[in-house]
Automatic annotation (TrEMBL):
Record-level GO cellular component terms: membrane
Record field: transmembrane: 6-31, 43-73, 93-114, 126-148, 160-184
Chief location category: membrane
Coiled-coil region list: none
Similarity annotation: Belongs to the SAT4 family.
Topology relative to the membrane: Multi-pass membrane protein
Superkingdom of source: Eukaryota
Source species: Lentithecium fluviatile CBS 122367
Record's keyword annotation contains Phosphoprotein: no
Name of the protein: Rhodopsin domain-containing protein
Amino acid sequence: MSHYLYYIYTGTALHGPVFASLKTVITIQILRIIVPPGSRDALFWASHIVIWLNIVFCTILAFLGIFACTPVQKSWDILLQEGSCLDMDGINIAAGIVNIVTDTIVFLLPQWVICRLLVSDWRRKAQLIFVFCVATVAIAFACIRLIFAIKMARSDDKTYYISVIGFISSPEMMSEFLIISFLVPPKLVQSIWDGTSKIGYSS
């Protein structure tokens, strides 16, 4: 059981940094699509606020997960009697709420542009619509994860609900990786192509 709980502890510690990195990359890519270079409009500042709030929150969440118990070993060693732990149920529920809020904001950012037809390039519109569709999946799983976090707070069987929450986190994370895999490669290929063209032209 201790080995199983140790893996859960490790996954919890990595959860915050991984999701912070994913959402930061997604928001930056959306920012590059919807905000012209050099512009400092409301969307620019809203995106940066989302990025930094998400980084700060996920960093705090990671530290709370790592140092939830004193000594730290008590987080996974059920035979250790001495020491104490924080109320992780409240922290998990708060994390679920903030996660839904940040996912929703990332979901709404491109819709602002789509609704106002500020993007004339059909390829950019396709990218934004794709983000729109996949983000709904991420939000749905984030809501389901919050529901199980609330159920876990009311139950004595923490191990079962932690397993369910970890399982639900996988498709949520996968959807965010899917968004990145759609947004980043075209820019990478274009950058390589432009660099190759410049080298060929200069030679």
